[in-house]
Amino acid sequence: MSRPDERPAELPRPIDVRVDHSEGSGADRVRVRFDIAFEPLPANVRDDFAFAARLPASDPAPPEWRARRLGSELDREWETACWAAGPKRGRPVRTRAVLRRLEWDAADPDPDADALTRVLDQAAALAAREAHRALTEGDGPRAVGRNALPRPPALPRAVPGVYVRHIMQTGCPGYFAMVWADAEPLPGDAAEDIAFTDDLPARPADGREPLPPEFTAAFGTGVRDALALRGGGRSPFAVHVVLRDALWHEVDSNEYAFRAAGRLAAKEILDCVAEGRAPRPVGRGSGRLTAVPPMPRTRTAR
């Protein structure tokens, strides 16, 4: 976990985090609840991060793969949280994450492994980031997860014209995603905190192929994931995100690229609201742009 030029810090105190998180609705709903303690790591442990499951004897032992998956995601997310603190505060912090309780339920008694893994991964990210927030801010941890938080207020204002240019074509695989999106306040009587729709042209006037539906869905997933993570398990605002237009590449575009574009778009929406400004181009490959370019659908064909 640590970098050669950085000496890991020691966790100064235990931090106990409670997570109650779920995703989906109806027959697809999966819910995970767990308590986890981030503790100082003994000096005789060589690694910077360790994971252990110490559940009450009365609790059924979780399948090994679930505990192992949770441990690996906690390790990755703890490292991410440490370095995300910035060049002055970001450094590895030695810790041991001890699982004290783990429960899950679903409308389906045998939920799809991918669905459960996804919720576990989200819960691990929420736990690690909340523990690190409590550490850096010097206060107590808060319960995190969708079910631990109240319904958020509506987005304070519309944020039209969000543009993401996320392109890298020098790697293998590369990635290529260009999107234009708008964000609108979601009415208080809406069933969900986040609504996502696409208003993509069915037949682009310039002759290009429409965006494949799996890329559209990946963008929406990225938006939802980023908003939920930013809000501790639930979006900070009730928001409707509309995908207006997109460009893609038949070789370098993939679901990963559009999911990343969705996360970048969500971050830009929240930053625009917090800073009271209009959207700026964001994403890898957007650095030289000074303004949001027009959508392809608005350009006059030659």
From TrEMBL:
Residues 151-274 form the Translation elongation factor EFG/EF2 domain. Keywords: GTP-binding, Nucleotide-binding. Transmembrane segments: none annotated. It holds the Pfam family EFG_IV. SUPFAM superfamilies: Ribosomal protein S5 domain 2-like. The keyword Nucleotide-binding applies. Residues 1-22, 281-302 are annotated as: Disordered. This is Translation elongation factor EFG/EF2 domain-containing protein. The lineage of its organism: Bacteria, Bacillati, Actinomycetota, Actinomycetes, Streptosporangiales.
